[in-house]
Amino acid sequence: MKVILHDLDQQYEKMFSGRYDRVIPADGKYAPCQGCFGCWTKHPAECFMKDRLQQVCRIIGQADELTIVTKNLYGEYSAAVKNVLDRSIGTSTPLSTYRGRQMHHTLRYGKHDLWKVIVYGEITEAEKETFRYLAERNALNDGFERSEVTFIGNLAGLENLL
Amino acid sequence: MKTVFINCSPKKRFCASAYFLFLQRLFVSGQKVSEKLRTPGDHARILEQLRDAQAVVFCLPLYVDGLPSHVLRFLEEMELFCRKNNLKLSVYCVANNGFIEGRQNEPLMQIFEHFCTRAGLSWGGGVGIGGGVMLNVTRILFIVDIALLVLNTVLSAVNTGSFFPRDAWISFGRNALLLLYFNLGVLFYLARMGGHIRKGTFSGKKYTRILIPSFVFILFADIFFVIISIFEGGIFRGWLSRKEYTGE
User: Fold this and answer.
1) Which of B168, B178, B190, B221 has the fewest C-beta atoms lying within 10 Å of its C-beta?
2) CB spacing of B229 vs A137 below 8 angstroms
């Protein structure tokens, strides 16, 4: 399954809908993670907050390829996109294992293929380095085989990268 | 000198960030102000505190290898505020994660450094702590130990008239030393960074963890989650199963 998570306007929905099985718009109309671990310990793979992200981990967890389109923010995802990722830790289980010689959580949905990030907006070279490192870490953490980060100054060329 | 400590955990209570904030405060002198950042409603109050501060210490958990989204929202606003008011703060951070390796906080440290560059602030460095949740549990265990000691002392006084139950004190001392040992790495690096905060100098990025072997940590972490999941019921609701999306 191909999934895209993006923080762009509604006008881009049409561009994404034909190419992806699931489109997750990060429009900021939802609450941030409360750090309760309830999606591990109380109601597995489901958040206690009954908003649009309540079961978002079940979509991301089933993605073979996850594409994230985000504005750069200090070498990190935009707050709206990060909010979605923070609310999706139910893709893993509370049990621990070693991956990449470090402790991580075991995967509820098994291995995935590609963690692909398309970053738009002004960005420094140092922030690019951080973004590549962050995506690598995310891929390892979420059990993706590989990560790929592309930087675009503006959104004109976005369609060709999807 | 004024230092603002910001507890960025979204949890209302018993959070590891509050514990590390408490410890970091011990090693900083001068005027100290503690703030809690949970919602956008906290932004204006905290920014006002920063106006006349020389240093700010963010105490926060690692979320998905980076900063929690509600902290990112605050940093965006803080960047504008600092630039508008030409503030020259030194920024430090104490980050903790649930995994044992403190080094997993590295991306978060880099993100803070980039924030400082954009906001025109001095990046002072930080301490990345592995096993934050379990270290927080040591604080609770210490309180339980004190309560047991008090209880034993009262029972001893009632039964024997002695206010010094030797065995209870030895047991308390042994437990306290063990808990102190688990926290030694954290205490060392927070004390070291405290010196830099006082002087306003660069502390560098340092990583530490709870001082137990990794495989023991994983075993205890798994037991911890099994117990919690039994009490909360998740273990009976398809605890590890592949849940299908049922929305829409």
Assistant:
1) B178
2) no
- The backbone region for B148, taken as left when phi is positive above 0, alpha when psi lies in -120 to 50, beta otherwise, is alpha
Domains, chain B? 2-133+183-212 (3.40.50.360)
ipTM of the complex: 0.97
For residue B190, which amino acid is it?
L
Q: What is the pLDDT of residue B123?
A: 98
For residue B69, which phi and psi values (nearest 5 degrees)?
A: -60, -35
- DSSP three-state, residue A99: strand
| Helix spans in chain A (H) | 13-17, 38-41, 56-61, 79-86, 125-142, 158-161
Interface mutation vs chain A, best among B38, B64, B104, B226, most A CBs within 10 Å: B64
Q: Which residues 52-71 on chain B approach chain A with CB closer than 8 angstroms?
A: 61, 63-70
**Distance (Å) of CA B127 to CA B96, B112, B203:** 8, 12, 9
What pTM value is reported for the model?
A: 0.96
Please list every residue in chain B whose beta carbon sits closer than 8 Å to the beta carbon of residue A30. Answer: none
Domain limits at A62?
2-161
B131-160 tens-digit pLDDT: 999 999 999 999 999 999 999 999 999 998
